[in-house]
Amino acid sequence: DVKVTQSSRYLVKRTGEKVFLECVQDMDHENMFWYRQDPGLGLRLIYFSYDVKMKEKGDIPEGYSVSREKKERFSLILESASTNQTSMYLCASSFWSYEAGGRNEQFFGPGTRLTVL
Amino acid sequence: QKEVEQDPGPLSVPEGAIVSLNCTYSNSAFQYFMWYRQYSRKGPELLMYTYSSGNKEDGRFTAQVDKSSKYISLFIRDSQPSDSATYLCAMSGGNFGNEKLTFGTGTRLTIIP
Q: In terms of CA atoms, which chain B residue is nearest residue A49?
């Protein structure tokens, strides 16, 4: 069964703290994504990675960085947390294969609700 | 203007009703269209996947794409309380795994028993 796990369901941090959000997938997927989800704004892509040690900026990368040292793990880092980074953070993974019908379905984790005080 | 517009709702309908959820988009390069369902405190999961224009049916769910009008719909027949969730449309220009998806804001749906 497809599984994407995120290290915490709820997290409370203080302004200025360095925050690590971890995501692990057990499907051997090449591609991994970090989104944040806010009411009225939907899912917005922060960063994605299509291979180990590779990363690409999404639509809102400012204030974030990522790390992908192993294929199954993709970390989102908030270097200095701010209150406007209070949000739901969702990790996803995907792969592509002709045999699978060529679909770019993304599989999501349960999310981490981060509150920055 | 957002690339993808979706009515946020909330939408409440009685059990058994037909539900229509819609998205409009502006980027004519979009060719792959998806509907994700997200239950409360869970991540989104893929519900329907379609390519280009036309209809696709899966049980009580029908996805419809009209590329000429840049309009996609999801119909739910014989709606059930278990259909209560937020529905997100998503789309991309290609179908490779590293393609970015552009999401709508989601419509919160409640089916009243």
A: B98
Helices vs strands, H then E, count in chain B: 0, 11
Could you give the CA distance from residue A60 to residue A109 in angstroms, rounded to a whole number? 20
Per-residue confidence at A100, pLDDT binned at 50, 70, 90?
A: low
Q: Give B-chain residues touching A31 at CB under 8 angstroms.
A: 97-98
Residues 6+ apart with CB under 8 A from B9: B107, B108, B109
Q: Which residue of B has its CA nearest to A42?
A: B105
Say whether A103 and B49 touch across the interface (CB within 8 A).
Answer: yes
- pLDDT averages per 10-residue partition of chain B, 113 residues: 85 96 93 94 92 89 95 96 96 74 94 96
Task: Please give the residue of chain A at the shortest CA–CA distance from B7.
Answer: A40
d(CA A51, CA A32): 8
Question: Which candidate from B42, B98, B101 shows the least CB-CB separation from A50?
Answer: B98
Contacts of A111 (CB under 8 A, 6+ apart): A6, A9, A37, A88, A89, A90, B41, B42, B43
Q: CB A111 to CB B42 under 8 A?
A: yes
Query: Which burial class, exposed, middle or buried, applies to A69 when counting CB atoms under 10 A from its CB (0-12, 13-18, 19+)?
Result: exposed
Q: How many CA atoms lie within 13 A of A117 on its CB side?
A: 4
